[in-house]
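Researcher: Let's do a round of design. I'm pasting the structure tokens now; please hold your answer until I've finished.
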């Protein structure tokens, strides 16, 4: 029997493929695979080490890798649901009912995850709470204001849509499932597909020109790439550089087995399209950051739930 090949979340904004077979993957986590479905959303953060700059949380519609968040220390994955049928929310019992009474309307698990990502999913959160986050684990300021709650939910669903390449909440960014809306960055010269011109490594074959706003991959060129896209990071993980580094002939990162030496012989157009989608998705989340930062200021300035008002896990 041939092992099943499935897509999974390798790193934040980096989707790759894996054999879904314990004979190949020695650390596959059955609870995560059993809970995966079209409604599942996985959150990742740094829960045991201090957060760096950038977003404090990232999401995936695919089962994430152990180091999904920022390539280190991110083994703690938080699924929205505990089962594939999406009948058991992974939320403290009684919390959604408490919020529903406060806001005078039903609060769904999707609302809860939207709120969390809306509040934590941007650099403004890690900037504001830099000192507090020296104690590992992000904390969520939970507003008692229904209007602020809903604004955060709306923003968070937008962030999740971009982070999951429109696999989750595609309607909020005006698209269909799995189709990333067009952004500014565009390929103006193809990355060569000849075997002898396959990109060797980041040092020799990848560069970004901030003056011309061009990203060069061997002879290939992407125009109108925002400097903020090139510099986007998640606790030290430079997302675009990381994405490209794992696709070089001389692969970035540590090697875990001889399988790591098996590389593509040609750069296919599908990989160029994936890179384009990555650049567009980063444009999408970056555009939301000012609104998220301003909303966080409003939430913190308003009335918040205290820990002892909330049900215990």
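Researcher: That's everything. Go ahead.
Model: Designed sequence:
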């Amino acid at each position: 029997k041939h092992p099943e090949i499935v897509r999974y979340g390798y790193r934040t904004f980096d989707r790759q493929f894996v054999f879904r077979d314990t004979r190949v993957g020695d650390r596959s986590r059955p609870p995560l695979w059993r809970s995966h479905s079209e409604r599942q959303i996985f959150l990742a953060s740094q829960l045991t080490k201090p957060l760096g700059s950038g977003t404090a949380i990232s999401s995936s519609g695919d089962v994430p890798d152990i180091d999904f968040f920022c390539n280190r220390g991110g083994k703690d994955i938080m699924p929205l649901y505990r089962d594939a049928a999406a009948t058991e929310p992974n939320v403290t019992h009684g919390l959604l009912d408490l919020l529903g009474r406060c806001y005078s309307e039903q609060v769904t698990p999707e609302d809860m995850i939207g709120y969390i990502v809306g509040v934590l999913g941007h650099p403004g959160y890690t900037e504001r709470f830099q000192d507090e986050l020296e104690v590992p684990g992000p904390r969520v300021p939970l507003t008692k204001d229904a209007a602020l709650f809903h604004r955060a939910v709306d923003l968070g669903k937008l962030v999740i849509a971009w982070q999951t390449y429109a696999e989750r909440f595609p309607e909020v960014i005006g698209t269909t499932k799995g189709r990333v809306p067009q952004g500014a960055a565009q390929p103006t010269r193809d990355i060569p597909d000849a075997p002898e011109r396959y990109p060797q490594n980041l040092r020799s074959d990848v560069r970004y020109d901030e003056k011309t706003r061009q990203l060069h991959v061997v002879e290939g060129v992407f125009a109108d790439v925002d400097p903020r896209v090139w510099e986007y990071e998640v606790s030290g993980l430079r997302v675009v550089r990381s994405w490209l580094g794992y696709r070089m002939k001389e692969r970035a990162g540590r090697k875990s087995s001889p399988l790591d030496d098996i590389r593509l012989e040609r750069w296919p157009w599908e990989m160029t399209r994936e890179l384009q989608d990555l650049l567009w998705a980063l444009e999408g989340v970056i555009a939301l950051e000012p609104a998220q930062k301003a909303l966080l200021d409003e939430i913190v300035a308003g009335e918040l739930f205290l820990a002892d008002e909330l049900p215990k896990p």
